[in-house]
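Sequence, please.
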């Protein structure tokens, strides 16, 4: 089968499309991949900068959507089921998923949308509901509001009853954030409204600016640092203003709590049925275009969720 592999950690341009054996399905859900989500951790993995550092060669991709080929007895899955899964090795024709991290794909969603469902929407739900305690009627400020995790936060925030304000840098991104469901959209270089909760996957200088826009007892939840700089904070700002700075790292937390993950999956399924959750698919790529996709992420050109389409024809 085809697989996009890191053979040396030199970045996106060092990726190779390799012909590798199909994985065995022993004890796992064997999935014929139809689409895979392309995310920031893939960029970091290609450079050896992620917290997990597998030895090359390894196959990239942590988000897969496709059709079950085989599944362990008692897993709840049958051949032919449409699923979305958090996996390792999604950039391939076939991958395996742990039963507890594999989910039935809601009938309302396409495979491309399913490839953007698990990591982004579970992260948004974890950050907003469990970590920040977002409540109905509160104001939520979302940075990076046109990206994959930003559009997920907009939709989950609306489903939780918040008034959602997206922060973007261009007119094109403003349209995406509005289409995702933001009640209001402001530019990154303008003054932002006060908020009860700030969702921040960007980091850098924005973190300090965001703290200033928190209302009393507000919460700023940190998702990542796509700007590239990990900021430092003078904690007296938290003390004097009675605000909270919260971290939200979903992956490791979720892997150790399968019951919690299934509860969130059920809630997201409800949100999809209610019309709140519908992943925003941006540009789609073929296998040989994955390096370009990672460059688009790195240079912050990504709008919506970037997707590897397994059946897409290679570029000329």
């Amino acid at each position: 089968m085809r697989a996009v592999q890191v053979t040396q950690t030199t970045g996106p341009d060092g990726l190779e499309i390799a012909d590798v054996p199909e994985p065995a399905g022993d004890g796992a859900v064997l999935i014929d991949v139809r689409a895979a989500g392309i995310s920031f951790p893939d960029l970091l993995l290609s450079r050896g900068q992620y917290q997990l550092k597998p030895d090359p060669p390894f196959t990239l991709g942590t988000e897969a959507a496709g059709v079950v080929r085989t599944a362990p007895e008692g897993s709840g899955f049958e051949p032919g089921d449409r699923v979305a899964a958090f996996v390792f090795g999604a950039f391939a024709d076939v991958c395996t998923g742990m039963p507890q991290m594999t989910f039935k794909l809601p009938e309302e969603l396409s495979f491309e949308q399913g490839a953007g469902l698990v990591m982004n929407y579970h992260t948004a739900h974890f950050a907003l509901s469990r970590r920040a305690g977002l409540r109905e009627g509160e104001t939520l400020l979302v940075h990076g509001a046109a990206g994959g995790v930003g559009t997920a936060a907009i939709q989950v925030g609306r489903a939780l009853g918040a008034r959602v304000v997206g922060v973007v840098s261009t007119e094109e991104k403003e349209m995406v954030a509005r289409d995702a469901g933001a009640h209001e959209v402001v530019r990154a270089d303008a003054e932002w409204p006060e908020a009860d909760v700030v969702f921040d996957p960007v980091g850098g200088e924005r973190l300090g600016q965001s703290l200033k826009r928190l209302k009393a007892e507000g919460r700023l939840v940190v998702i990542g640092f796509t700007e590239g700089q990990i900021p430092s904070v003078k904690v007296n700002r938290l003390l004097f203003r009675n605000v909270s700075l919260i971290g939200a790292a979903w992956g490791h937390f979720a892997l150790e709590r399968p019951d919690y993950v299934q509860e969130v999956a059920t809630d997201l399924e409800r949100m999809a049925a209610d019309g709140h959750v519908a992943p925003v698919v941006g540009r789609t790529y073929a296998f040989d275009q994955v390096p370009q996709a990672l460059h688009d992420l790195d240079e912050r050109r990504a709008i919506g969720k970037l997707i590897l389409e397994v059946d897409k024809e290679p570029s000329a």
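The chain has a mean pLDDT of 94.
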